Amino acid sequence: MATFDHSFTINNRELETLLEKMMELRCFEEKIAKLYSQGDSIVGPVHLYSGQEAVAVGVCSNLRKDDYMISNHRGHGHCLAKGATFEEMMAELHGKESGYNKGRGSSMHIMCSDLGIVGTSSVVASGIPIAAGIGLSIKMRKTNQVVVSFFGDGASNNGSFHEGLNMAALWKLPTIFVCENNNYAVSTLTSESTSVKDISVRGAAYGIPSVTINGMNVAEVAKVTREAVERARKGAGPTLIECKTYRFMAHGEGETLEYRTKEEIQKWKQMCPIDSLCEKLIKEKVLTEEKTKHMEQKIRKKIDEATKFAKESSFPHHFIKEADVQQESAIYPASSPTKEITFIQAIREALREEMRRDETVFLLGEDIRHALWGVTKGLVDEFGRERVIDTPISENGIIGVALGTALTGLRPVAEIMFADFLTLCMDQIVNQAAKVRFLSGDQMNAPMVIRSPLGLGRSAGPQHSQSFISWFMHVPGIKIAAPSNALDAKGLLKTAIRQNDPVIFIEALLLYGSKGLVPEEEYTIPFGKADVKKKGKDVTLVAISTMVPKAITACENLAKKGVDVELIDPRTLSPLDKDTIIDSVKKTTRLVIAEPECKTAGIGAEIAAIVAEEAIDYLDAPIKRVAIPDSCIPCSPSLEKIVIPNEEDIIKTILEIIS
Ligand SMILES: Cc1ncc(C[n+]2csc(CCOP(=O)(O)OP(=O)(O)O)c2C)c(N)n1
Q1: What share of the chain is helix, strand, coil (3-state, %, to 5)?
Q2: Whose CA is nearest to atom 3 of ligand 1?
Q3: What is the reported pLDDT for 548?
Q4: If you count DSSP H runs as helices and E runs as strands, how many of each does the chain have, helices first?
Q5: CA nearest to 428, candidates 409, 444, 406, 454
Q6: Which residues contact 297 (CB under 8 A, 6 or more apart)?
């Protein structure tokens, strides 16, 4: 364990300021409790902070306005201590347009970019890797800021905690981890869920200076944090501060407290951080009882005014739908493609060009310097280890870190070694990155790309052959590209890196060696614009990723049989170019979809549903899907052939609906 010298002093005037701030937090929570019990104005669940004020106030008293903070479900105190106003907090808790998130987040999601409140996650522990990412961004941008991640003892049992701490320690990031150990995670005692008595030993295990302190004493919290902030600002890395504290209220409002004894609650209330500091300052004649009463009255009056403001504010009635988000305009090359390159080279060229164009673009992932697939080979020589970062095998952490950097001015391109492993970072992709723009009331964006290879068709087996494009199509806030050739791979990846929302970029390993022509000069390909690879009049064939080359062969064979297929490669599945598909079906009256994923609830199912909704009257035959028949992908080539659809399957299916 590290030694903390506690030599900083805090004078009585400073203590008075800390006391006033703690009183603000307490009075705010008391008002929320009252409003919640009245049942008609507070929106959604609330988890009150009463009892823990010394932690938020002590920590935040050391932060600059431009320092960052990531909060959790019990976050009112953190936000107020970081400078949030009663008005905007109260309005958000009332679900109003004038709230921090324009009513989209309420209690558990307060975000305010001006105050550095870059995230409040209701998913336990998710903020921890994001805070590591913000630390990385501070270090890369050399801004001398720090970031604080607040979380509970329960969060320290989650993988995100361990991945985040390891990366912060490894890269010496200016991230301060503040664990508020209030003895419980909902009703479960810390001693019954946590293998160690002091959570700070877990920080020490990662080589992080770590300490357990009395979280009911604001002076102690402030002093220890000051040391942690100094350490972070001078580039000496993270600190873990475990604050032993107690929440006076139920886990969430409206919930029972019956798992705790009255005696236990009473014991902790006697250590109330506000009462004890008040008593001390009165005893030392810094304050009088009258003055503290006056202080409290003033605070309560302000909170009443904020409540009036919130109640009188209007509810939001409009927000930007994902479909209305503007795309970057494309760059069209003056001449036609003449340069032959492989798919791998196309990806590498896109990365290199974008990294040269924009110094905020950087790469992170497992083994990307050595470049397992060869894609990122050599980039470290040009851009250095600061912009081509090898990571531990911590997929959830990688995406959390990428998100933290994306929230604070960088454009990360993360590589997840196989698309199958996207399952390990679903929370960071789906609950965190995808929600940023919407949840922050359009204050913030997450401009990040997640590149991930699809291993299908290489005997890679059931855990290295899946892409899950259809899963991500179901998530608003994420864009998905799945190029089928070198030209598209380069142009789409350049566009992906310029997007302001997270993009999942699926690269099929089977296509990596395929060659194609690209223009000599710069170009990009817009998202949401399908490529009609072949015009035809008899049937529309929509093919995705690895199915496109097979579809091209199928079209050639069918042409010999007199069947004229219109072949469409959507290129991006989200946004999906519905118009091109619908217009084509209206012309051909037939539709087949060829996809490299399982059939049920798949990409084809969605496209079929769109066509059924918009153009069913034009159809002269049932819509057909050529897909993996809801099976795991076997390793044996003979079995793989049975499961993965090929040219023959496409031809057979088309002939069925033509005749
Ligand atoms: C990943 C995840 N699992 C479960 C929950 C439900 N949940 C919300 S708060 C909470 C307890 C968290 O305990 P702790 O981290 O100690 O924070 P505290 O509530 O004590 O402040 C749980 C289980 C959640 N929100 N996220």
Answers
A1: 45, 15, 40
A2: 124
A3: 98
A4: 24, 22
A5: 406
A6: none
pLDDT digits (tens, 9 = 90+) for 130-160: 999 999 999 999 999 999 999 999 999 999 9
Q: What angle do CA 260, 262, 267 make, to 5 degrees?
A: 100
Closest ligand 1 atom to the C-alpha of 251? 19
Hey, which of 50, 73, 78, 128 would you mutate to test ligand 1's pocket, going by the most ligand atoms within 8 Å of its Cβ?
Answer: 73
Residue with tokens 């219109």: 566
502 CA to centre of ligand 1 in angstroms: 26
Matching fold, domains 12-312 and 531-658: yes
Distance of CA 181 from the midpoint of ligand 1 (Å): 12
Question: Residue written as tokens 């199915």?
Answer: 547
For residue 328, what pLDDT is reported?
Answer: 60
Residues linked to residue 57 through DSSP beta bridges, in sequence order: none
**Architecture of the domain delimited by 343-518:** 3-Layer(aba) Sandwich (3.40)
- Residue 612 tokens, joined: 């059924």
| Residue ranges for the chain with pLDDT beneath 70 | 1-3, 5-7, 320-328
In Å, how far from its chain's centre is CA 82? 22
Architecture of domain 531-658: 3-Layer(aba) Sandwich (3.40)
- Residue from 46, 186, 427 whose mutation best tests the ligand 1 pocket (most atoms within 8 A of CB): 186
Pocket of ligand 1 (CB under 6 A): 73-74, 122-124, 151-155, 182, 184-186, 251
Domain boundaries, the chain: 12-312, 343-518, 531-658
Q: Please give the distance, rounded to the nearest whole angstrom, from the Cα atom of residue 149 to the centre of ligand 1.
A: 15
Residue 568 CA to residue 547 CA, distance in Å, equals 11
pLDDT at 2 (0 to 100)? 61
- Virtual CA dihedral for 343, 344, 347, 349, nearest 10 degrees? -100
Q: What is the CATH number of domain 12-312?
A: 3.40.50.970
The set of residues, in sequence order, having a beta carbon less than 8 Å from that of 214 and lying 6+ positions away, is: 220, 243, 244
**Residue 162 is among the residues annotated as catalytic for this protein:** no
CA atoms within 13 A on the CB side of 383: 27
Cα–Cα distance for residue pair 137/506, rounded to 1 Å: 26
Of 175, 229, 236, 239, the C-alpha closest to 204 is 239
Which atom, in ligand 1's list, is nearest to the CA of 156?
15
With b for 16 or more beta-carbon neighbours within 10 A and e for fewer, the 160-170 pattern comes to: bbbbbbbbbbe
- Residue 39 vs residues 35, 75, 110, 353, 452: alpha-carbon distances, Å: 7, 21, 21, 56, 47
